[in-house]
Specification:
alpha/beta; single chain; about 475 residues; three-stranded antiparallel beta sheet; eight-stranded mixed beta sheet; 2 domains
């Protein structure tokens, strides 16, 4: 493979050929990577190599139109102009981006699945206290859970900053899974986020949620692949079998044009891409369908039901919009939303410190989910929320009052169809009970997810969703 930059492809156009080129995103942008797959062989390539590869294999699939054609009726947009300056396709046409990303598909009658990725490496032992373990207080230092908000069992208590979740626990709708993780964890953000979201070998070019929808839904529906600004559809949702949507909010999900002529832009998109075929036509059609479908939703002011009070944060706003879309009956099956900032190598803060790093996020996290459940009312009975994180943290707090990358973690599962309780066990915190100073992974995260897919989402194609994984003894979580 040469390193020549082919002038026939502009910035980002190689990414339109998603069967050849896959972008991998890292929380540190300097570590972003591109993967190229040819003949079953996958390797990391530079942007120049990606362009050269696509130009060689797809020499006739170019985007040749001029940027803007000025006519007596106003500006018309050419394909190259639409893509110039945008990373992936029509994303550059949409409003400014933020954290939440959503996927929509034709309903199958199962639960709405809300997948929350706690990016950065969630510290399970800052959430879960083990006051009876003789080494817990010693190893956790100021980060130990000393004032339990509520008791989960004789052995475990939950950090009081999660107090908003207590009603769900009491209603048997909150499950806490201990020792959760992927057996292949490496302690690398980049590698482990990819590993968890793909839930398959690196050469499987899709994410586990993408495969779930592929093997459970009809191949039709309003919303399919749109990527907005510098945001992206999460890797979990990627698949070539259907299209998904990325947005910042319901109200901002619209087409933008510097000429303030939205109708003209819609007309030109249809003209340019209606007969293009392939991914270009699909994304254009999905963009227009999605924007049109949300026009009605946006036209009505939204007030959360049942007195639900979402926190004033990006997290709270994202959950509020998911509830809004769920109630709009647009066929919402899966909603993915990120909550980052859990990579706390310094200054986790004491449980008693409401403004501490971990406490502030934990409070926001819990209040958001509590408001979400309240807002949905009876719909909560057909909603399942799952949390994921790339890895856990080391048991012992470091010299800077933080924790470093570890292995086993704590995961939360919530919903009207969840059998609440504690699943799994942490035998103890003695050296011989840990994995190189970390909590061991004792429950493969795919075990719990496979039960959710089968019991709550009606998908029995577990071998297709999680290739290479064989479920073990059921946890009974759903």
């Amino acid at each position: 493979m040469t390193t020549r930059l082919d002038a026939s492809l502009r910035r980002g156009e190689a990414l339109l050929h998603e069967d050849l080129i896959t972008p991998l995103h890292h929380h540190d942008e300097a570590h972003n990577r591109l993967l190229a797959t040819v003949g079953g062989d996958t390797r990391v390539v530079t942007p120049a190599q990606a362009n050269d590869l696509v130009s060689t294999l797809r020499p006739t699939r170019r985007i040749d139109d001029p940027g803007v054609e000025h006519t007596p009726d106003g500006p018309r947009f050419g394909r190259r102009g639409l893509f110039r300056g945008s990373l992936i396709g029509l994303g550059g046409l949409l409003a400014a981006s933020a954290a939440p990303r959503y996927s929509f598909a034709a309903t199958t009658g199962g639960d709405l699945l809300v997948c929350v990725f706690l990016r950065g490496g969630f510290d399970g032992l800052a959430a879960l206290g083990m006051p009876g373990d003789p080494r817990y207080a010693q190893l956790r230092g100021s980060a130990k859970v000393v004032d339990d908000s509520f008791t989960l069992s004789q052995k475990y208590v939950l950090n009081p900053r999660f107090a908003a979740l207590k009603p769900l626990w009491q209603a048997n709708q909150l499950a806490v899974v201990l020792g959760s993780g992927h057996p292949g964890v490496t302690r690398s953000h980049f590698e482990d986020q990819d590993l968890c979201e793909r839930a398959a070998r690196a050469n499987v070019r899709s994410g586990w949620l993408g495969r779930h929808i592929q093997y459970s839904s009809r191949p039709s529906g309003t919303f399919r692949a749109i990527t907005m600004g510098d945001q992206r559809v999460v890797l979990s949702l990627t698949t070539t079998a259907y299209q998904s949507v990325a947005m910042s909010s319901v109200d901002s999900f619209d087409l933008e044009t510097a000429w303030n002529d939205r109708d003209r832009l819609v007309t030109d998109l249809g003209r340019l891409y209606g007969d293009a075929g392939g991914v270009l036509a699909t994304q254009a059609r999905a963009t227009l369908d999605a924007v049109t479908s949300l026009d009605t939703v946006r036209s009505r002011a939204y007030t959360p039901a049942n007195g639900a009070a979402y926190p004033d944060s990006t997290w709270g706003e994202g959950l509020r919009d998911i509830a809004r879309l769920a109630k709009a009956d647009l066929g919402l099956e899966v909603a993915c939303i990120d909550y980052g900032g859990w990579d706390m190598h310094q200054g986790i803060g004491a449980t008693s410190d409401a403004g501490g790093q971990f406490s502030a996020r934990a409070t926001d996290f819990a209040r958001g989910l509590a408001a979400f459940a309240t807002d949905l009312g009876s719909r909560w009975n057909s909603v399942t929320v799952v949390t994921m994180s790339e890895f856990g943290r080391r048991v012992e707090v470091n010299g800077d009052g933080g924790t470093d990358h570890g292995h086993g973690n704590v995961a939360f599962y919530l919903g009207g169809g969840i059998n609440g309780g504690v699943y799994g066990d942490i035998e103890g915190l003695a050296d011989d009970q840990l994995t190189d100073g970390d909590l061991p992974i004792t429950i493969d995260y795919r075990q719990a997810l496979s039960e959710i897919l089968a019991k709550r989402l009606g998908n029995d194609n577990i071998a297709d969703v999680f290739p290479g994984f064989s479920p073990g003894t059921a946890l009974g979580i759903a």
